[in-house]
Design brief:
The complex is a heterodimer. Helix content of chain A is 74%, strand content 3%. In chain A, strand 2 and strand 3 form a beta hairpin. Chain B has a domain of 283 residues: DD-peptidase/beta-lactamase superfamily (Beta-lactamase, 3-Layer(aba) Sandwich), CATH 3.40.710. The termini of chain B are far apart. The chains are: A mainly alpha, B alpha+beta. The interface between A and B is large, with 51 and 36 residues.
Chain lengths: 500, 460
């Protein structure tokens, strides 16, 4: 049923024709502008809150941000309902709304002192995904909600877990072995999907090991490099990390391989503070890319699809990317309106190409705001990482942050033809159990470490044993510590406070 | 911190690219037959009109009281190929301007009010370069013959008329579809012969042979002499003149005017074939044409390895050479324009429903294909074709015409396609014309009268 049919049905129900039609039309047509305005305000606040320091003011902003999220969610559901008059949409909306409220309240309780903005953004991105997936396929939206609810519930225990296993940084080798085994498992019981052999199917569930290993992989790097970032340690870590990447390349999961690689480089750079590692690593990456392009037809295909998806390629390798660009371009700045575009023509629109579907129906302005919100998430992660006093936590948080933002870059860059497409999901927004579970876990871990860091710091303050100047400053004004922590970064290896 | 800056820079570049894409690229990219969103857009926008240069409506959308749109073509069959259709696959301008026609550029506030009222916004209108009078004259001049006419303004490349016959009625294409498709063997009504029909060029190709000879003998081409006995033999390959007519002593000009096959075969044996091939390729044989509509590439296959038989046939326009009426029009328009070829185009500008220009297209040059003296020299010789040769019936027109006829044999029985290419006025060319009449007979008898009516209409 489309918009006009729905309007006619409403008229049949309510009687009076002109009034109902115009109200229906105004509601549906104005919604896309209202959604864009609301989201733009939300995005603006995401950045403006970096400036202020007043906690009370921040709480107030957070409440407003929350209201905006609920409002956008409501409007989207209303429009989808008005255009289809399908009662299932209301039920799904109610379930999603209950989920959002529950997670919001529960996390504020469990993750006390954690960054509320990060929580807010996590819910916002999930909500946008819910709406778009629901518009594309009802059953997918249901599954997505179930997965999100399950992992968010599990996520409530992450702070306890982190607290209980205080020696998280002792198991570097175990993380590496576990990760490699899990990654390599696809060679034994894996199945191919969208040209990459990186799935394990168990009954009705399809798992993507690279999504889960992603997290312990960062643990492994952080554990290795937290102790020392000398040349020989870096080489050791690089060998093991390289093994991860090679397995992924063999699985043809190029996106994940890139994410793993860049994450390793980023953590090494932060741990060692040596630009030479970064330059060397990026140089090696360029060389490897050229070699991969020369050797592998599936890499060549991606490059062809990127450099010229038109002409005869449009029915072959260029098909997806061309459809994606048609969607974005036809949607234009304000979008076609929710439910009024043709995003189902883009292959895997609900997953890897969800950004194009969003841009088509909600507009390029909305899509740009979405990118900005993702960036603000990353900036918050980095801020959190800088506040961490324990080196292992700091490196883990940074590694996870880079993993997150680089994946965002790969997927959005890929679907807009900025870079060759690598087939990764848009974290939290795309449909996909593995992706949602691993990203929410990632958010929870960063938040959990932040909470724990605060607690340990308080403990440290009461015992007053670490007497260096950095700590003394902190006692004086805890809240200002962030900036100074950044400034005093180089001193960190020697100022491990927790235990020595 | 290097890391954050580096990643921020990446994202800034990506955002910049995204905005650049939306602003400058998306309009062109979405206008692609593989983008199937026209029906979605058609729910929000009433497809714009297609108009002639003079403002006559060639295609419009009418909405009935139930809100259903129908596309109407007031000229019925006359513009069917060039304007195209929207049902049973989109063709012509309807096809390649599909998204501009479905985009509204009226005042955003007005658009908003329309959408709130539940009304469609008016799509942009396409104003073409087509001259409705010329098009109708050409359409009628072809009568019941199969064939095509292309009229180009030499100085700009504007297509003033483009007719292909037989034509179909775009208003009833859905009802007639089965018969249109079934009948594709002989009539091929759906085919735009003007751009897709490939014919042997016949004697019109002697323009190219002649120009190559001039280029190779810049000082001495006027000294060329040939004794025509009605038939000649080149390494055992016999070349006859039309009706075995004996033309007597000829120079290059009179050889062209009388269209003497023997003289041109003789010229062909002296030519540098590699250079000749390059010349034809500069005129876009074997090359993609820089046009937005569907076309076939014209073919020229002579090379250094070709034997004498093929060589002598090719240089007088038989052999394996194949040409579209459009390509022939482009060649003659380039000669008329002192050797500079203008890219042919059919869309002058796009305007919104309020008449404000949204996009304007200006003439583009494909560069100077031959030097000015070559083009002008050839132009003078083409005048002789009309004054004293095969095109003499055009002398009835009140201004001098330059041209070349052709009778292209296409089967063993000697039936031929009638060709005429030419321009007028000879001194200061305003229009260039290319006419082909399929299977009719000689160019002078069947193609020249069509051209005459087109030229006549232009100065009415």
């Amino acid at each position: 049923m489309d918009k006009i049919e729905a309007a006619n049905k409403l008229i049949a129900f309510f009687g009076d024709s002109a009034g109902v039609r115009i109200i229906h039309s105004i509601l549906v047509e104005s919604s896309k502008y209202i959604i864009i305005i609301l989201f733009a305000i939300y995005t603006w606040r995401c950045f403006s809150m970096f400036v202020g320091k007043d906690q009370e003011k921040k709480d107030k902003i957070y409440r407003r941000q929350n209201q905006i999220m609920y409002l956008i969610h409501f409007i989207c559901a209303l429009v989808l309902f008005l255009n289809s008059l399908d009662i299932k949409i209301i039920l799904l909306y109610l379930a999603q709304a209950v989920f959002l409220v529950f997670v919001n309240k529960a996390y504020l309780y469990v993750y006390q002192n954690a960054s509320k903005m990060v929580l807010g953004n996590m819910l916002m991105l999930l909500m946008i995904g819910f709406v778009m997936i629901g518009r594309l396929d009802f059953s997918y939206a249901l599954r997505q909600l179930v997965f999100a609810a399950a992992i968010c519930t599990a996520g409530l225990f992450i702070p306890f877990l982190i607290e209980k296993f205080a020696y998280f940084d002792r198991f570097g080798k175990a993380y590496a072995v576990l990760g490699l085994i899990f990654l390599a498992l696809v060679f034994v019981i894996g199945t191919s999907k969208h040209g990459a052999k990186n799935w394990i199917v168990i009954g009705a569930f399809a798992l993507q090991p690279s999504e889960f290993v992603k997290i312990i992989y960062v643990f492994f790097i952080a554990a290795f490099l937290a102790r020392s970032a000398e040349w020989k340690d870096v080489v050791k870590a690089a060998a093991v990390a390289g093994l991860h990447v090679l397995i992924l390349v063999a699985e043809r999961d190029l996106g994940a391989a890139l994410i793993y690689y860049i994450t390793f480089l980023a953590v090494v750079y932060v741990a060692s503070q040596r630009l030479s590692f970064l330059v060397l690593g990026l140089g090696a990456l360029s060389a490897a890319s050229v070699i991969a392009w020369k050797l592998f037809p599936h890499v060549q295909n991606r490059v062809i699809a990127w450099s010229n998806p038109w002409g005869e390629n449009i029915t072959g390798p260029g098909y997806q990317i061309a459809q994606s660009l048609f969607a974005i371009g036809t949607g234009s700045w304000f979008g076609m309106g929710l439910g009024e575009g043709l995003p189902e023509r883009i292959p895997i629109a609900e997953s890897d190409f969800i950004f194009s579907a969003i841009s088509e129906e909600l507009g390029a302005f909305f899509a740009i705001c979405l990118i900005l919100v993702e960036i603000s998430c990353f900036v918050m992660f980095v801020n959190i990482a800088l506040k961490m006093t324990k080196r292992f936590y700091k490196l883990t948080a940074l590694g996870l942050a880079v993993e997150y933002i680089f994946q965002v870059f790969l997927t959005i860059g890929g679907v807009t033809k900025f870079i060759p497409s690598t087939g990764v999901t848009l974290p939290l927004v795309s449909y996909g159990g593995s992706s949602v579970i691993s990203t929410i876990t990632l958010f929870c871990i960063i938040q959990g470490m932040y909470v724990l860091n605060d607690q340990e710091e308080e403990d440290g303050e009461t015992t007053k044993k670490q007497g260096n100047r950095e700590r003394a400053n902190r006692q004086g004004s805890g809240k200002k510590a962030a900036g100074r922590a950044a400034a005093g970064r180089k001193a960190y290896p020697k100022t491990e406070p927790a235990r020595k | 911190m290097v890391l954050t800056y580096g990643l921020s820079l990446l994202f800034l570049c990506m955002l910049g690219y995204f905005v650049w894409f939306m602003v400058t690229q998306s309009g062109e990219i979405i206008n692609n037959p593989y983008n199937k969103r026209q029906d979605v857009l058609a729910k929000k926008v009433r497809r714009g009109e297609i108009r002639s240069a003079g403002g006559e409506v060639l295609a419009r959308t009418e909405t009935d009281e139930n809100g259903n749109d129908t596309r109407e073509y007031p000229y019925d069959k006359v513009f069917c190929h060039v304007v195209g259709r929207i049902t049973n696959s989109m063709t012509g301008i309807e096809g390649d301007q599909c998204y501009p026609l479905l985009t509204s550029h009226i005042n955003p506030l007005e658009q908003l009010i329309n959408t709130f009222r539940g009304e469609k916004n008016p799509g942009d209108n396409i104003v073409t370069t087509l001259d409705a009078g010329l098009q109708t004259a050409a359409y009628e001049a072809l009568g019941d013959h199969r064939g095509a006419v292309v009229v180009i303004e030499p100085s700009t490349g504007k297509i003033l008329a483009m007719v292909s016959k037989p034509a179909y009625d775009p208003n009833t294409v859905e009802e007639d579809w089965d018969s249109l498709v079934e009948d594709s063997g002989e009539e091929s009504m759906l085919l735009n012969r003007a751009t897709q029909g490939l014919y042997p060029p016949g004697s019109t190709f002697k323009l190219l042979t002649g120009m190559e000879y001039m280029i190779e003998h810049p000082k001495k081409y006027q000294n060329f002499q040939y004794q025509c006995k009605g038939s000649d033999s080149f390494s055992g390959n016999v070349i006859n003149c039309y009706d075995r007519e004996v033309h007597g002593t000829l120079d290059l000009e009179s050889a062209l005017a009388k269209s003497c096959n023997g003289a041109f075969a003789k010229i062909g044996t002296t030519l540098d074939i590699a250079a000749f091939r390059k010349l034809t390729e500069r005129f876009l044989f074997n090359k993609p044409l820089p046009v937005s509509f569907e076309y076939n590439k014209s073919r020229f296959s002579l090379d250094e390895d070709s034997d004498m038989g093929e060589l002598t046939q090719t240089v007088m326009g038989q052999g394996k050479t194949m040409i579209t009426p459009l390509e022939n029009a482009m060649i003659v328009a380039a000669i008329a324009n002192s050797g500079e070829m203008m890219v042919p185009y059919v869309i002058d500008h796009i305007e919104n429903a309020a008449g404000q220009t949204v996009t304007a297209y200006s003439p583009r040059s494909k560069g100077r294909i031959v030097k000015k003296w070559v083009a002008e020299g050839m132009g003078e010789m083409m005048e002789a074709v009309v004054k004293s040769g095969t095109g003499s019936s055009l002398q009835a027109l009140p201004y001098p015409v330059a041209g070349k006829t052709g009778s292209a044999e296409f089967d063993s029985e000697g039936t031929s396609h009638a060709w005429f290419v030419g321009f007028a006025p000879a001194e200061n060319p305003k229009i260039a014309v290319s006419v082909v009449v399929e299977g009719a007979g000689t160019g002078s008898q069947y193609a020249v009268p069509v051209a005459q009516q087109v030229f006549g209409q232009y100065w009415e």
